[in-house]
UniProtKB/TrEMBL annotation:
SUPFAM superfamilies: (Phosphotyrosine protein) phosphatases II, PH domain-like
Coiled-coil stretches noted in the UniProt entry, renumbered to this chain: none
Entry-linked SMART domains: GRAM
Name of the featured protein: Myotubularin phosphatase domain-containing protein
Residue stretches making up the Myotubularin phosphatase domain: 200-361
Organism this protein belongs to: Hibiscus sabdariffa
Length: 361
């Protein structure tokens, strides 16, 4: 439709105030602001914004904003970390309308003149839209009330915060490495593990010295197999593994991975228990036929979930950060990639098929 042509110029890196004007009777001009007149557009107290992360602060906000993609009204916030859309009805964060600033490719101001109602006065306000294009291929469109300066405030805040002048102004540095102030990196790492395990313990240097940090819950445990860095010099002294996997199996599985980097838990969802795990490439050999029972058992245990007192299996997604042909080429040096036939209920996904140097993972 003519009313939805790709934006031409105004982006996050462009400080000009030019606006793309669109004429037509397409999807954008169906916004009927009268149905949002009953919305309570009162300022939201920043003190009560429990969904803000540590050290996250509100830079600008707009009330009575409509997320055009799903025709939902709410409040739009620009923080020092993300663009955040809060539903007016549920007061919950709308994932589609929420995107970290670092993943925004560009943003554009758009104006749509309404021609679907010819009897309206020529002075009828045009639709004020803000289009966000994300690096994750999302296209998000917000509609703002006419004759307000809310879109201007949001746009200016995105210009300021989207590309900060100093790297130290990024949220990653503002937040800090951890909410625990202990300078000992091993203690900070254990505190993060305790948090993931749901333990109320606080780590200490004495726990590191005497090895009393090997706590566990129903599914996961902290292993000290690498406490002296002899198994894997590039891994930390402690890491999370499934509780059902013994230290002997961990050591055995390490021989099947390049540089002994076995699959270990990097992140765990606090609600569902789903995990992200990291590892190096498997040593499947030139014919891609070498297997390891210990490795397959370890990977399988990463997908185990506890529901209603019973253990079940999640689907496993193996994301290989290489094109398929590069993974196959590494087989000549003993490496390679996992086979979905060797890992129960799994799917192997290769990243972008682009030309680059084939480095060892």
């Amino acid at each position: 439709m003519d009313a939805f042509r790709p934006p031409k110029s105004v982006s996050g890196g462009d400080t000009s105030d030019s606006i793309e004007r669109l004429d037509g009777d397409g999807s954008w001009d169906v916004l009927d602001w009268t149905k949002y007149d009953e919305l309570v557009r009162r300022p939201v107290s920043h003190v009560n914004l429990e969904f803000l992360l540590e050290a996250e602060r509100v830079i600008a906000e707009g009330h009575g904003v409509v997320l055009v993609n799903i025709d939902e009204a709410g409040t739009l916030f620009v923080t020092n970390f993300r663009l955040l859309f809060l539903s007016e009805g549920t007061r919950n964060i709308v994932p589609l309308g929420t995107i970290p600033l670092a993943t925004i490719e560009k943003f554009n101001k758009m104006v749509v003149k309404n021609q679907s109602a010819p009897r309206r006065s020529d002075r009828s306000p045009s639709l004020r839209l803000l289009q966000i294009i994300g690096k994750d291929m999302r296209i998000i469109v917000f509609g703002f009330r006419p004759r307000t300066k809310q879109r201007r405030a949001i746009f200016d805040a995105l210009l300021r915060c989207g590309k900060p002048a100093r790297v130290w102004d990024l949220y990653a540095f503002t937040c800090g490495p951890s909410k625990f102030s202990n300078p000992n990196s091993k203690v900070r790492l254990l505190n993060e593990y305790f948090r993931l395990l749901g333990k109320g313990h606080r780590a200490s240097e004495s726990m590191v010295e005497d090895g009393s940090f090997t706590l566990s819950n129903d599914l996961w445990r902290i292993s000290d197999t690498n406490s002296s860095y002899t198994m894997c010099p590039s891994y930390p002294f402690a890491f999370l593994v499934p509780k059902s996997i013994s230290d002997e199996e961990v050591i055995q599985a390490s021989t099947f991975r390049a540089r002994c980097r076995i699959p270990v838990v990097s992140w765990c969802h606090p609600g569902s228990g789903a995990v992200l795990a990291r590892s190096s490439q498997p040593l499947v050999g030139l014919m891609m036929n070498i297997r390891s029972n210990a490795d397959e058992k370890l990977v399988s245990a990463l997908c185990t979930q506890l529901v209603g007192g019973k253990y079940s299996r999640r689907k496993l997604y193996i994301a290989d950060a290489r094109p398929r042909k590069n993974a196959l080429a590494n087989g000549a040096m003993g490496g390679g990639s996992e086979s979905s036939s060797n890992y129960f209920q799994s799917e192997v996904v290769f990243f972008w098929d682009r030309q680059h140097t084939c480095n060892e993972r």
